[in-house]
Each structure stands twice: as structure tokens, then as C-alpha cells.
Amino acid sequence: MNDTICAISTSLGEGAISIIRVSGEDAITNVNKIFRGKDLLRVESHTINYGHIMDDNKVVDEVLVSVMKKPKTFTMEDVVEINTHGGVAATNKVLELLLENGCRIAEPGEFTKRAFLNGRIDLLEAEAIMDMINAKTENQRKMAINQIEGKTSDLINELRSDMVQIISNINVNIDYPEYDDVDIITQEILIPKIKNLKAKIEKILNETENGRLIKEGITASIIGRPNVGKSSLLNALLQEEKAIVTDIAGTTRDIVEGQISINGILLNIIDTAGIRKTQNVIEAIGVKKSLKAIDNADLILLMINNNEKITNDIQELVEKVKNKKYLILINKNDLETKLDRKKLKVEPERIVELSILEDKGIDTLKEKITELFKIHEIEKKDPTYLSNTRSISILKKCLQRIKDIEKSIKNNVPIDIIELDIKNIWEELGKINGTNYEEELLDEMFSRFCLGK
Question: How far apart are CA 16 and CA 400, in angstroms?
Fold first, then answer.
């Protein structure tokens, strides 16, 4: 990290301005070589300076240059940002001149990686920066900003702090048994402390489902027999003609997807091929994908026609989805009723009556989804959750180790052995916010960032 990096930090194309960011030991010196205006080496920190970028005494562009001196910068290094007129040619030319004058092109996410390695942010905050960039809903934005501000890290730091107290107390008992003013950690004293740790971890994990829903949304698969209105429902929810709709059964042969937001939570809607026995090879592949979509979905929307009697294959589909979160959508209520709803053998609250042709029942469907996933409760809460798979996996591992410690205490395992187990959990938790980390993890994580961030 002793070299100086640069990259374009705005989308490349036509626009009002482009920003080229430079960070490192020689950031100010290198920019000063191609800048005509004030001597950047002498200006105050956190100032914006007017001038021109020059190439052999020829003006490349009229610019504003922001100079920010360490340590009060994003990377905690000297940082310079060059604001040029938006455009591909001017932006690339400025970048080219920087590379010729001592900078190297930054790797994806390298500015954020330097901020982490220099102690400006922790790993959770770094991951949240990319979540903020990718945020599509207000709840996603709120959750990302809470992580950036360190609120999620505080949850992990509190757990680690509790463990440090236990570890320190046990160490004093072992190393300095003559101290009378220190509590002797016995199994009776340790049990409630371990239970308290377990309860805190379980609480965080229980709430991570909300974090996952906010970050990834709800995957809803629309399934049913051919020609029940699945594609029409997708189009009605998206309010656009995304899927082809005809009266010919089996029109949809492959997965068609779209997204809408329900009370700040993304609903990822998947329209699947109609499920039936078929000799058509292509349609059979679509049916196979539809059945797989049932297993992968958070929510199953099983569509049935109001003007058709219940058949064995409909009953089979109803039974197949009962182990998932599901809703039964009875479509074509504008036609004569032939469907015996009692034969479905499902709770009335699971049924939504629809007439997509007459635009009836769509709002009711959205309300049912809101109730089923308790979206209103998520919306009211301050979204401070773990939301990435890496962190959740580590926390689940720690919970299992805490449960193993409970068993060890009951089996009268010596306190010094238990102390080692607690210390291992403490170190494992440090991987969540980056107190402990592996270089390979950083390389993989920051490679997902965009250039210039």
C-alpha cells in the first residue's frame, strides 16, 4: 500500500462531471505535476481548487481539484479528486496523464480496501458500502447506512466484550488464585453467563431473516397448470407486458422474472411454465424448472381456475406447497364457478380471489404477502441486522460452539478448557467485522466492488 492509486469513480459516459480519484503517499505530488493553478502542495486540506489539467503545456480540461490530506480522508491517505467535464475523451485523458506521472490504476474496491486496512472502517462497514451502492429500496438504504455507521458492528463488539470479561476473569482465577477481590468463576456462575451469550446470538440470528428479506427480497414463484393466468398475473403485478399471454396452453416454456417493491421489500416474481404431463421435450424442461422453483422460492403463489373442477394433479400441487409459505390464488372469478373450495383443504386466509381480466384482487394479494412475511413490522423497526451470508454462517457456527460449551459445563469439563473454547468463539466473531481476517477473504470480497470505490 505504499504506492499511489487512481481510478475513474463515476460512470464513464456523457454527463455533467466526471471524478477521477487518487489516493496514496504521492497523490498530491502526482496531480500537481499535471495541474496548472495553485500549488497543490501548499493549499489547505479539504479545499477545492480551480485550474486546468495540462499535457505538455496544452490544456486538456478545465477542472476543480479537491485536496484532502491524511488522516482525515476515506482511505486515511492523502486523497485528491479531480472533477472534469463529463465525457469519455477528457476523463480518459486525465487518467492517462496520472498513470504517466507515477500513479497506477486501482483494482476494484481498492480505495475501500485501503480504508479497511488503515482502520478507517471495519469489514461489516466495508460490505455495507457495496450494499448502499446496490440499494433499490428505502429499507435497503436504511440497513446499509446503519452498517456503515457501525450499528451492526456494535452488536458483534458487544458479544466479544462480554466474552473478554469472562476470559479475563477465568485467567485471573488461574494465574492469581490469591486475589480475594476477584469473583471465582465456578460452573454455577458460568452457566448464566453462557446462557446470556447464547440468547444474544440467537436474537441476532432470528432477526437476520429480516435482514435477508430487506437485502435480497422475497422470491415468489407463480405455479399452476397451463392457462390459469400465471403470465397475466406477472404482467399485472409488474404493470407491464413482460410475459407473452395467449389462450394457447403451454405458451410459457421458460422462467420469466420481474421485480416490484411491497412496502420497501423487493418481491422477485418468477412466472413458471404450466405444470402438466407432456410429451413435448421443450415444454417438459419448462415443467421440470417449475417444480424446482417450488423448492427454491420463499413464497409459492399457486394459481387455480375458478371455472374448473379440482383434479388429482391440482390436489397434488396443493399438498406439495404446504411445507412452504404459500397462497392459493383462485383466478377467473368473472366466470362461472365450478371450483369446490372446501376440497382444497386449506385455511381460508391462504386463499386470494382474483379476476386478472377485471383487475380485481391484486391489492388483496399484496396485503396477504405483507401479512405473511410481517413486512409492516420490519418497516417499523430500525433495520440493524446482519445481512450477508458470510457473517451469518460464522454466527451460526459460534452458536453451535456455545451450545457445546453448555454441554461441557454439565459434564464438569475443567474451567481452563472451557476458557479456551470461549476464546476460540471470540476469535471467530472477530472474522465478522474483520478484527481477524484472511488475505484471501479480502481479495475475494473487494473484487466484487466497482472500480474507483
Answer: 53
